[in-house]
Amino acid sequence: MEPGKRLLDGMRGRINESVLKAMARVPRDRFVPAQLRDRAYEDLPLPIGFGQTISAPHMVAIMCDLLDVRPGMKILEVGGGSGYHAAVLAALAGPEGQVFSVERMPDLALAARKNLQAAGIAGVTVVEGDGSLGLPEHAPYDRISVAASAPRVPEPLKEQLRVGGKLILPVGETSQELVLVTRKNGFAVEEKMGVIFVPLIGKEGFGERQI
């Protein structure tokens, strides 16, 4: 059995089938450094350089599952990294959907664009910038996914979320919680599980300091 299929089969029954199908269409080995490609389908986070990581496949699956992405949605991703999570979101949103991925490190943003192109993934626009401020020029978004831990839910991201939209992100410093925010008349916040992510660096994150 192929490693990728074995990995996804292990999540069956816990993760929505649409998410597993989307992940099956995205070759994770295209989004990890060449020297780690033989480990691409291990269910672990892997280093991608610059102190950053590509999230473990099960965490990508859980976040996408909780977001309930539908075809045609406009999605903002914060913390683009190597481009893998954005690729899965694009597979879920389909050809009519749009994914805007913000990455603060120029070298990673460039690498993500190359990875997405090499993997044949369309529908993702990688933007260099401070993701903690969102990307107001393309707001509002149906879904927002943040792959770095913030001290609190950033106000700009809440403001850029469409009514009825959902935002998922880890919150906390030494102890982090994966939080799902749904915009209704106000904002409903649900804590889902304890997690470990790299810090969100930016004006609405942990500033420019490294923790």
Automatic annotation (TrEMBL):
Domain of life of the source: Archaea
Originating gene: pcm
Cellular component GO terms, alphabetical: cytoplasm
Listed InterPro entries: PCMT, SAM-dependent_MTases_sf
Active site, renumbered: S55
Protein's recorded name: Protein-L-isoaspartate O-methyltransferase
NCBIfam families: pimt, PRK00312.1
Transmembrane segments: none
Enzyme Commission number: 2.1.1.77
Lineage per the UniProt record: Archaea, Methanobacteriati, Methanobacteriota, Stenosarchaea group, Methanomicrobia
PROSITE patterns: PCMT (PS01279)
GO molecular function terms noted in the UniProt entry: protein-L-isoaspartate (D-aspartate) O-methyltransferase activity
Locations listed in the record: Cytoplasm
Pfam family for this entry, one: PCMT
